[in-house]
Amino acid sequence: MPVRIPDNLPAAEILESENIFVMSETRAANQDIRPMRVLILNLMPNKIETETQLLRLLGNTPLQVDVDLLRIHDKESKHTSIDHMNTFYRDFEHVRHNNYDGLIITGAPLGQIDFEDVVYWEHIKEIIDWSQEHVTSVLFLCWAAHAGLFHLYGINRSLLEQKRSGVFNHTRTSEPHPLLRGFDDEFFAPHSRYAEVNINDLHQHAEIEVLAQSPEAGAYIALSRNNRNLFVMGHPEYQKNTLNDEYQRDLGLGINPKIPSNYYRDNDPSQEPIARWHSHGSLLVSNWLNYYVYQLTPYDLSDMSAMTPWETKK
């Protein structure tokens, strides 16, 4: 939340140059405040687990957030009861005429399938296109980040020889940047995917800015120049045991997976995993909500044309 300060306080200019959110008394007195409306398109098999992970991150911000849950189709889920889906999830036809402050599109277990071969690919494209007119900012996670980069900017991914799973060290490529406010120079984040977008393709694209990357895991955070689309190639929402659950599942399927990198103590799966990404995961989502949703979204969501350009907020 912003720090309210007297009009024309000299410290304001310094604080704003450091991306500290300050607000003059005059602006604060005339500000209308309402809850942020965030839509979550949940593509993960275990809906309840993913809901909990994302809501935990959204709940770490002091902003009030109203959440709607969206499903990609009404077919029965193997991992979530139909009663849960019918009770808590909405179909796209029920929200397509709404506007939202934010949209989160989750990952999906589709890393080895060509986008055009995904059974609901046309529906995914429709929702992404809709979001560019009806949502202030979109957060794409893992598979969704690859899908969004491909559909919106024509940047394709390539399959990896082996699944990239583990917790990797990352560095910031841009400083200062509002999205990375409070980040350490180096930080950890989990990845779990079968494909990768070439980092050079991202760096060379005029409409994309890479904000964080890893020598082992490649690009992690990329942002569109118009600030509408945030692409996170990993899983900041994962909990401590999520990678272990995936590893044990793959072992049970006979896939013979690699041990997740930098995850178990002494790299020994019989020992406890080490969680070292929760703080930066929470900070990433909080900064996104603050700088790219709350500060840019119009008070009246019926008029998305009133969205404030980021340049006027610097």
UniProtKB/TrEMBL annotation:
Location within or outside the cell: Cytoplasm
UniProt-annotated site: Important for substrate specificity, residues: S192
Family: Belongs to the MetA family.
Signal peptide from the UniProt entry: none
UniProt-listed CDD domains: GATase1_HTS
Biological role: Transfers a succinyl group from succinyl-CoA to L-homoserine, forming succinyl-L-homoserine.
Gene: metA
Pathway: Amino-acid biosynthesis; L-methionine biosynthesis via de novo pathway; O-succinyl-L-homoserine from L-homoserine: step 1/1
One GO MF term: homoserine O-acetyltransferase activity
Keywords, in A-Z order: Acyltransferase, Amino-acid biosynthesis, Cytoplasm, Methionine biosynthesis, Transferase
Species in which this protein is naturally found: Shewanella aestuarii
Alphabetical GO biological process terms: L-methionine biosynthetic process from homoserine via O-succinyl-L-homoserine and cystathionine
InterPro entries noted in UniProt: Class_I_gatase-like, HST_MetA, MetA_family
GO cellular component: cytoplasm
Name by which UniProt lists this protein: Homoserine O-succinyltransferase
Site (Important for acyl-CoA specificity): G111
Recorded coiled-coil stretches: none
Sequence positions that bind substrate: K163, S192, R249
Main location: cytoplasm
